Amino acid sequence: MKVAVFSTKPYDQKYFEQFNESFHHELAFFDTNLNEQTTNLTRDFDVVCPFVNDKLDKQVIELLAKNGVKLIALRSAGFNNVDLNVAEANHIKVTRVPAYSPQAVAEHALALILTLNRKTHKAYNRIKEGNFSLNNLIGFNLYNKTVGVIGTGKIGSAFCQIMLGLGCKVVAYDVKKQPALEDKGVTYMSLEDLYKRSDIISLHCPLMPQTKHLINEDSIALMKDHVMIINTSRGGLIDTEDVIKNLKEKKVGHLGIDVYEQEEQVFFEDKSEQIIEDDALLRLISFPNVLITSHQAFLTDEALKEIAQTVLQNIDDFKNGRSLVNEVKS
Ligand code: NAI
């Protein structure tokens, strides 16, 4: 199959080429995003392989269909960037990578918590400059704190187990409970109760119309003063303006985000020599108690291997008319 891989970074190419040795698809790597303008690159391709910030809306999908594309093989778990109804109407199948090392993302959520709390990023810079002072580096013990987990699927579940291991009380909300987690000590409760009781809240649910701006002025008002909010899921789960307001008012004590509502304008790129025009992002960067990473939670060797392998297998299943176990439908 001829596959156009979009938004390619050197690490994508490395892992895809390595695993393609046993699949023999014809891969073409484009570092550009997939958008209306770049769909012309997909002529003569059977498959496109987009990443999280490639928006596959009606216009893009109709152009892909015109060019003969028959499969959108996502290399992500989330599929909020694809209009599934339009894909179906244009007879284009969509597959994803439902699970690739959930521990990679769960462990990154922990990294955000520990860095924000124990300020190791600041200590590192201080020591580099010969500053051995401990002033303003006070953190808190995670032991016995209450951690609220919203979404206890594969990643949320791995995260619950990490936090239980640290001696935290773990409370959770999901539309579907997991009895196995309850057996391990996780207590499910309403969202409202979770907001009221948690010292740390970590988001692991998908972005959907029901979860858009889940974290907003009203939900933050229910939370404890100085709550820590962690988002490694999707930027749109948090209303950025509302969280900025609550950081300014010191209601939110810490914010750790690996994803950001408007991230497609900046994330994954080196913008160090450019003027960043996103004022909300600049405001977030300016807070001493906000930590931002550039959608890197998935970026482990294990996860990249699983992504490449699963995407290439999905394409192979499609090519050979096998059932598409990782198909997503509207
Ligand atoms: P999953 O499908 O295994 O779990 C999602 C969970 O959210 C399910 O248990 C589901 O019942 C629950 N859920 C659905 N609607 C909900 C609602 N309204 N309120 C609360 N919970 C709800 O997905 P997985 O693999 O755990 O991934 C979670 C999210 O993490 C993905 O949707 C994706 O956006 C994000 N992600 C981020 C990555 C990163 O690098 N930052 C990498 C991979 C995924």
Provide a descriptive summary of the structure in words:
Helices cover 36% and strands 14% of the residues. Helix 1 crosses helix 12 (301-319) and helix 4 crosses helix 6 (154-165). The model has no long low-confidence stretch (mean pLDDT 97). The radius of gyration is 21 Å and the shape is globular. With 330 residues, the protein is of the alpha/beta class. Bound molecules: 1,4-dihydronicotinamide adenine dinucleotide. The site of 1,4-dihydronicotinamide adenine dinucleotide has 30 residues, from helix 4 and helix 6.
- Ligands, ions, cofactors: 1,4-dihydronicotinamide adenine dinucleotide
**SSE string, helix = H, strand = E?**
EHEEHEHEHHEHEHEHEHEHEHEH
Helicity range of the residues? 25-40%
Distance between the termini: 25 Å
Reported for the largest beta sheet, the result is: 7 strands, parallel
* Oligomeric nature of the chains: single chain
Q: What is the average of the pLDDT values?
A: 97
Strand order of the largest sheet: 8-7-6-9-10-11-12
Q: Whole-number radius of gyration?
A: 21 Å
Contiguous low-pLDDT stretches (5 residues minimum) are: none
Shape: globular
Class by helix and strand content? alpha/beta
Count of alpha and pi helical runs: 12
Q: Number of DSSP strands?
A: 12
Strand content: 5-15%
